[in-house]
Input
Amino acid sequence: GAVVSQHPSWVICKSGTSVKIECRSLDFQATTMFWYRQFPKQSLMLMATSNEGSKATYEQGVEKDKFLINHASLTLSTLTVTSAHPEDSSFYICSASISLGEKLFFGSGTQLSVL
Amino acid sequence: RKEVEQDPGPFNVPEGATVAFNCTYSNSASQSFFWYRQDCRKEPKLLMSVYSSGNEDGRFTAQLNRASQYISLLIRDSKLSDSATYLCVVNTNAGKSTFGDGTTLTVKP
Output
């Protein structure tokens, strides 16, 4: 199956710093990638849809200036959590599909802990 | 009402038991359907796609009823390793994926 690589796997940072998370499709081109956040014992929450070559589409309630998304190529999308605070601590996961509407392949997730 | 609703669980069953999970969806334009499995602090992994004709993969059987907008997953002969959260995912052709909240299964010796 298709492979999506995400790193880092975990990050511990001080409050106020910015953290960049990378998501790569290794063996296919992904025009669209998705970013999610998951708090303990809760379901995945879609944050935004990342579109190659254009602006990301953010879900309601997600601050676009807080969570910067860049999808500069067909195989790479990045999520930057700017000026992270403890309440941003969460599990962040990306996904992509070979074609829209088809099954998703997920990155391995990034556990962010902000002190 | 949520777009995708799953049995809240949790399900606690002994090894060897048969367990069934249900999922309903509200968007009649939904086109593709999947069951994913997620282990604690790991990414979801595709368990199986779901088709109207029903499909089986070993101990796992998935069914789709488009008229009732209902999806099911049946696990036979449960193993300890089946313990996980099972996510129902519904896609539209526009590429939007909607996740259920997941149903947690614990299989005990």
About this structure: Chain A touches chain B at residues 1, 6, 32, 34, 42-44, 46, 49, 91, 93, 95, 97, 100-109, 111 (CB under 8 Å).
